[in-house]
Amino acid sequence: MTDQFKLVDAEGEETLRSIARADRFNAWMFEQVQPFAKGRILEIGSGIGNLSKFFVQSGHDITLSDVRTHYTEQLSHAFPHKKVIEIDLVHPDFEDRYREHLRTYDLVFALNVLEHIFDDRLALRNMRSLLKPGGVMFVLVPAHPFLYNSFDHALKHHRRYTRQSLGDAHPSGLTVMGTFYFNLMGIPGWFIVGGLLKRKIIPASNMRMYDALTPLFRLMDRLTCHRAGLSVIRVSRRSD
């Protein structure tokens, strides 16, 4: 991103590679987006393709993207039959630079992207411009400002959100379909490892253990009706 964009994302890539091994957790993330996955789809911030592979395997018409050339090159190698583009949601000439993508997609989704962007409101307005009328925007971001810790700092997160603050950042011209929390049981781990122990990278061993317990964590989200979680999700539809 043009605002404080790191060309080299060592901490982020190490974290993505730890999460890449968590197949159950990644499948759970995919299942949050899947009900809205119809028509032409654009994934913002595909990274190394942890979620992308589920869409590709399911046969969706998906375009992958990232702001970093390092990641788009990896994506092109991993998914040679899919279109991969570089896209900067806060580019100063966004509409001219990405003109061919405006009003094009039935679904635009971004998982753990907005927190890296200082001007998240501009990023969301530009995401909206990529949607067809009636298209769906799906956004997942870190939740609860009180949880901000060394993990967030190392990953260059500008903020964590609440349902209210995520809604406040969204532009006009979108009809809300749902806002809810996700991954309740991620809160203790994030607080202990990143807050109390001051780790800067999610250890691969922790991610393996978390992945093994994912079925239990899914159940906890259902039992608590998504009233709290490590992340917050907002789904909205372009209304014009």
Characterization of this structure:
The chain has 240 residues and is an alpha/beta fold. The protein has a single domain, classed as 3-Layer(aba) Sandwich (Rossmann fold), CATH 3.40.50.150. It is 39% helix and 21% strand. It contains eleven helices and seven strands. The protein has a seven-stranded mixed beta sheet with strand order 3-2-1-4-5-7-6, with helices on both faces. β4, α6 and β5 form a beta-alpha-beta unit. α1 packs parallel to α10. It is globular, with a radius of gyration of 17 Å.
Q: Topology, pairings included?
A:
Layout: H1 10-20, H2 23-33, E1 40-44, H3 52-57, E2 61-66, H4 69-78, E3 84-86, H5 94-97, E4 105-111, H6 120-129, E5 131-142, H7 150-154, H8 163-169, E6 174-182, H9 186-196, H10 204-212, H11 214-223, E7 231-238
Parallel strand pairs: 1-2, 1-4, 2-3, 4-5
Antiparallel strand pairs: 5-7, 6-7
